[in-house]
């Protein structure tokens, strides 16, 4: 009885589970495609989720649960699917990607749509901006001629953000939030500045325009001097402009911050290589290598018998005592997606990083596949890859799963990065740019800044809740350390 139940169970699991062989292309593609489908299935109302800025408008969370998606994660998903197409050749999602990418641009074609403007963060806008940049670099099908073009959209985001560079506090840097009424307006953080740095580096490499490289170097220098970058090349989260010093919860390290700066440095290295400037290329090679090595602890190797497996150590539970993985909030559940993506970008541009990166992506994928064994379907992915079994993360339209499946999808697909064409520059790409996109006076900015605050309580809650969650998380994390 016991035996037959067991074998029935394992048969049932075998049929659905993601059974990845990291040495076999077809198996990797099948895994990526399976998870992409899971991700898509989270939007049962169909493509309306992706149009007119609707992506991210999930039903109100069940009480006590921190589920409900911010707008930025839609941009992150589009970036993931653009790479998915470039890597696997599967164009199943291209139509919804194009629709979403174009319906969220806002009236000024700069990814500042009115619906989200009241709660806009520089990082939110930048996630859509880097998706547009990827579309240009990957040769994703160009939009119709009467619509904004990928490269011009990335330039618009860059120009808007450059105009918000704030030299009045802490010697420079972007603030996190755009609107004064939001809590995060007084916070300068790594994700906002790191993405701005990365967009600058990517535009420099794509267009050859030196204005972008000067900006990228300025952001990098500021990051170094602000204390966000440590002397051993780790990236802290941020600090308040009241004291301009990283302290307390600001010291928490997130994998996407590390990945964002890493890929930016990789683009800088390649920019200087392509422009025949070996001395500067060599500086950026050193920086890229240092940033890469600095990801190892805390994101891959912590002497816990689980070598090279990616973990979001700021919120996932750690061995030896795994509890369920519930302390990561909705945003944080997706961060490993971007570390995987940015590892792959770095892999393409910097041959000297390849062994380090592939060792870790492969070990992580083997572990992650074992986490993708939950219900429904027997192929629902958990959050923790360290546990090497499904950790009980919930899945469903009002429950969650976007972050978990984004992360698994980007991890699996990027195992195939070695077969993908190097990102386009304007010599090889077709996307039309516009260096002055997004640099005019924004009617939206002027009008909305006159408002006293964000339009809805939910929007207003966003920024402050995130801060509170960070504080609680740091508490939980510290507790783990102490108890350990
Ligand atoms: C290149 O390196 C030199 C020497 O370190 C430095 O002065 C310069 O600012 C760097 N950037 C460019 C664009 O040449
Ligand atoms: C970067 O350069 C410094 C100084 O030249 C050197 O000490 C360090 O080992 C280099 N780092 C890497 C990762 O190559
Ligand atoms: C380079 O970029 C800057 C900043 O967007 C822009 O003002 C300038 O016109 C661009 N130059 C060229 C030659 O495209
Ligand atoms: C882990 O669990 C064991 C057994 O329940 C317990 O003795 C130990 O104190 C726990 N360690 C931590 C760090 O929680």
Automatic annotation (TrEMBL):
Entry-linked InterPro entries: 6-hairpin_glycosidase_sf, Glyco_hydro_76, Mannan-1_6-alpha_mannosidase
One GO cellular component term noted in the UniProt record for this chain: endomembrane system
Superkingdom to which the source organism belongs: Eukaryota
Any Pfam family matching the protein: Glyco_hydro_76
Signal sequence bounds: 1-17
Gene Ontology terms, MF aspect: mannan endo-1,6-alpha-mannosidase activity
The keyword Manganese appears for this protein: no
Residue stretches of biased makeup (Polar residues): 423-439
Catalyzed reactions per annotation: Random hydrolysis of (1->6)-alpha-D-mannosidic linkages in unbranched (1->6)-mannans
Keywords: Glycoprotein, Glycosidase, Hydrolase, Membrane, Signal, Transmembrane, Transmembrane helix
Enzyme class: hydrolase
Gene3D superfamilies documented for this protein: 1.50.10.20
Gene Ontology biological-process annotations: carbohydrate catabolic process; fungal-type cell wall biogenesis
TM helices/strands, residue ranges: 461-483
Record-listed E.C. numbers: 3.2.1.101
Subcellular location: Endomembrane system
UniProt-annotated stretches for the region Disordered: 423-443
Family: Belongs to the glycosyl hydrolase 76 family.
Protein name: Mannan endo-1,6-alpha-mannosidase
Origin species: Sphaerosporella brunnea
Lineage of the species this protein comes from: Eukaryota, Fungi, Dikarya, Ascomycota, Pezizomycotina
């Amino acid at each position: 009885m016991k035996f037959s139940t067991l074998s029935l169970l394992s048969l049932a699991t075998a049929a659905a589970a993601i059974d990845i062989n990291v040495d076999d292309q077809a198996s990797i593609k099948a895994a990526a495609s399976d998870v992409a489908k899971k991700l898509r299935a989270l939007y049962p109302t169909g493509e309306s989720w992706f149009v007119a800025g609707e992506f991210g408008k999930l039903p109100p969370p069940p009480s006590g649960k921190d589920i409900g998606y911010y707008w930025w994660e839609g941009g992150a998903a589009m970036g993931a699917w653009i790479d998915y197409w470039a890597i696997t050749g599967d164009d199943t999602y291209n139509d919804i990607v194009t629709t979403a990418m174009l319906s969220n641009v806002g009236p000024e074609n700069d990814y500042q749509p009115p619906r989200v403007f009241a709660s806009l963060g520089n990082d939110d806008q930048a996630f859509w901006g880097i998706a547009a940049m990827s579309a240009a670099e990957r040769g994703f099908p160009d939009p119709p001629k009467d619509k904004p073009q990928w490269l011009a959209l990335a330039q618009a985001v860059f120009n808007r953000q450059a105009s918000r560079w704030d030299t009045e506090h802490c010697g420079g840097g972007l603030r996190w939030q755009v609107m004064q009424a939001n809590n995060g307006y007084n916070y300068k953080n790594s994700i906002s500045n790191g993405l701005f740095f990365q967009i600058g580096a990517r535009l420099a490499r794509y267009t050859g325009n030196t204005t972008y490289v000067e900006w990228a170097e300025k952001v990098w220098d500021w990051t170094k001097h602000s204390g966000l970058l440590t002397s051993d090349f780790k990236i802290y989260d941020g600090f308040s402009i009241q004291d301009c010093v990283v302290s307390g919860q600001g010291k928490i390290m997130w994998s996407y911050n590390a990945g964002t700066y890493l890929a930016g440095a990789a683009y800088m290295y390649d920019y200087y290589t392509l422009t025949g400037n070996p001395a500067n290329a060599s500086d950026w090679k050193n920086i890229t290598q240092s940033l890469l090595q600095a990801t190892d602890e805390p994101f891959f190797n912590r002497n816990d018998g689980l070598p090279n497996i990616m973990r979001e150590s700021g919120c996932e539970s750690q061995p030896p005592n795994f509890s369920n993985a519930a302390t990561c909030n909705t945003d944080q559940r997706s961060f490993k997606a971007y570390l995987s993506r940015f590892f792959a970008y770095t892999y393409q541009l910097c041959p000297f990083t390849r062994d380090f990166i592939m060792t870790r992506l492969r070990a992580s994928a083997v572990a992650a596949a074992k986490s993708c064994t939950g219900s429904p379907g027997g192929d629902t992915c958990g959050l923790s890859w360290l546990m090497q079994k499904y950790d009980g993360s919930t899945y469903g339209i009002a429950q969650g799963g976007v972050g978990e499946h984004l992360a698994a999808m980007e991890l699996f697909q990027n195992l195939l990065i070695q077969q993908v064409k190097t990102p386009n520059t304007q010599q090889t790409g077709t996307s039309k740019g516009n260096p002055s996109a997004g640099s005019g006076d924004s009617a939206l900015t002027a009008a909305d800044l006159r408002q006293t605050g964000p339009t809805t309580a939910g929007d207003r809650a966003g920024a402050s809740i995130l801060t509170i969650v960070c504080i609680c998380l740091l508490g939980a994390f510290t507790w783990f350390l102490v108890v350990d």
